[in-house]
Structure formats: C-alpha cells, structure tokens
Amino acid sequence: MNKYQRYFSYLTTIFLVVFLTGCSFSHSSKSISKSLKGSSGSVSSIVSSPSNSSKTGAEYQHDIEDYTHAYVKSTTENYASFQKGLTDIADSHGVVDWENDSTTFNAIGKGLKKANVEGVSYETYKKNLTGSDETKMQDIQEGYDSE
After folding, report:
1. What would the pLDDT profile of 84-120 be if each residue is shown by its tens digit?
2. Contacts by 130-137 with C-beta closer than 8 Å and gap 24+?
3. Alpha helices in the chain (DSSP H)
4. Distance between CA 41 and CA 49 in Å, rounded?
5. What dihedral do alpha carbons 119, 125, 131, 137 form, nearest 10°?
6. Which residues of 62-77 are buried (b: 16+ CB within 10 A; e: fewer)?
7. Tell me, what's the pLDDT at 91?
C-alpha cells in the first residue's frame, strides 16, 4: 500500500466515524424530542416552562391589553412595529413564545374591545395581527367577548 492509498484509507475511516457518529446523534436527538413531545405537548413548552407562571399573570395580560389599545388608537397600522412591541413586553415578563401563547392573543382581543374597534376594522385587525391563524383569531375573539 503506497502512502496515497494509506492516506485515503485514513480519510475514509475518519469520514465514516464522523458520519456514523453524526447519524447516531441525530437519531438520539430525534428520539429525545419525540419522547418530550409525548410527555407534555412539545419541546418548546418544556423550554418555556419557567415562564409559564408569568405568562398567565394579570400584569402581563394588562400590559398587552394596554399596548394593543394604544397601538389601535395611534392609527399607524404598522404590524411589524406592533409585533416588536409585543416581543418587548413578553421579554420583560419572561414569556418565551408569545407568538404561540393564547393568553397573549386573548389580551389583544381585550385591547381591541377597549379601543372600541368593531365591524370590518375589528376583523381586519384580527386577521392581520394573527396572520389569519384560526386558533389565534379565536383567542382574540374570546378576549374581545370577555370585555
């Protein structure tokens, strides 16, 4: 065996070890992810669990409600800046995943009601603020109806 063949043999062996180790890691991480999903809904819910108590806090809901009310009254209709503001409020309360949190959208509904948004304007806000996601729109509706 000449030195090039030996070199190629070493590289092939190293490649195989790295490849097989990577596949093993990938398979293991998928298994862990599946087991976590089965136990509590999703991996993100476990990661965000420390913030679950603050997510449902009245202060967080009130801040989202007031922010929504002020946003609607400002008539800027800049949804990107609205979402940035929601992110800032969520961060200040330790809420990790506000985009998938029903409490957040419920509070948005309360804020829309507080701002006296009705009819076509209400439906437009609801669709634009949720990206037409049916579940999120339902959460907004529940908040709106609760006021």
Report:
1. 999 999 999 999 899 999 999 999 999 999 999 999 9
2. 130/105, 135/102, 136/102, 136/105
3. 3-40, 43-47, 52-55, 58-74, 79-92, 102-114, 119-130, 134-146
4. 12
5. -60
6. ebbbebbbebbeeeee
7. 93
At 76 the pLDDT is 67
How many residues belong to the chain?
A: 147
Contact yes or no for 147/114 (Cβ under 8 A): yes
Q: How far apart are CA 107 and CA 97, in angstroms?
A: 15
- Look at 129 and 38; give whichever has higher pLDDT: 129
Which one-letter amino acid corresponds to residue 14? I
Furthest-apart CA pair in the chain: how many Å?
A: 84
Query: d(Cα 101, Cα 119) in Å, to the nearest integer?
Result: 25
For the chain, the domains span 3-47, 57-146
Read off the pLDDT of each residue in 38-67 and give the average, rounded to a whole number: 60
pLDDT in tens, 116-145: 999 999 999 999 989 999 999 999 999 999
**From CA 121, how far away is CA 80, in angstroms rounded?**
18
